[in-house]
Specification:
Length: about 210
């Protein structure tokens, strides 16, 4: 849902957008299919990058032998659904694509309020990455760094839902569940946080 709202914002603010999707061996690969539908809705150039994170393991999202937590969100500990270095890797690829295509910004749908406690969703991580990318890219050295924008990072899920409705994001196409479907489980962290957002916003989830 967060990435869908980010794409809606990017399309609103820029003439062209590349919808970058990562097929990283996630158990909930249905999100890749949904991403394609969302990209098509906006007429965005859909680029799928394949990385098999299941081969290095360490996450319930890529290793079926590790149980996906269903007992409620606990942000005091990093959950088993954390994928080692995922956003660090994703952002590195994203700024590389942006530089190669002479695009000025990368939009990332991380959120530091209503989230599962992932370390690579925090503002301090994003701030540090911006500095690193500016040093690593030719554009950065030339004084034109690729902007890394996180328009949702300080928003609660309810605010993200309201913003998505305001900008007309196709939330009915978005997939949040950590399981493969065909229907959202309703009990994993991602489903609980999504439900919390819609409940607090007073809006019915169009994907259900």
């Amino acid at each position: 849902m967060d990435s869908t709202v980010c794409l809606a914002l990017a399309v609103k603010e820029h003439e062209a957008a590349v919808a970058l999707t990562f097929d990283y061996g996630q158990r909930h690969a249905i999100e890749v299919e949904r991403a394609g539908l969302i990209a098509a809705r906006y007429g965005a150039d859909w680029l799928v990058v394949s990385l098999d994170a299941s081969r290095w393991g360490g996450s319930a999202l890529t290793d079926a032998s590790i149980a996906i937590p269903v007992d409620g969100v606990d942000t005091a500990a990093i959950p088993a659904t954390y994928v080692p270095a995922r956003n660090l890797i994703f952002l590195s690829v994203a700024v590389g694509v942006a530089e190669a295509r002479d695009l000025d910004a990368v939009y990332l749908g991380v959120n530091a309020l209503d989230y599962s406690g992932y370390p690579d969703c925090r503002p301090e991580f994003v701030a540090s990455f911006r500095q690193t990318a500016a040093l690593a890219l030719k554009r950065g050295v030339e004084g034109r760094p690729v902007a890394v924008r996180t328009p949702l990072i300080d928003l609660a899920k309810a605010d993200i839902v309201r913003l998505g409705v305001e900008v007309g994001a196709p939330l009915e196409l978005s997939w949040s569940c950590y399981f493969a479907g065909p229907n959202p489980c309703g009990v994993c962290d991602a489903c609980r946080l999504r439900a919390k957002g819609f409940d607090e916003a007073g809006i019915e989830d169009p994907a259900l």
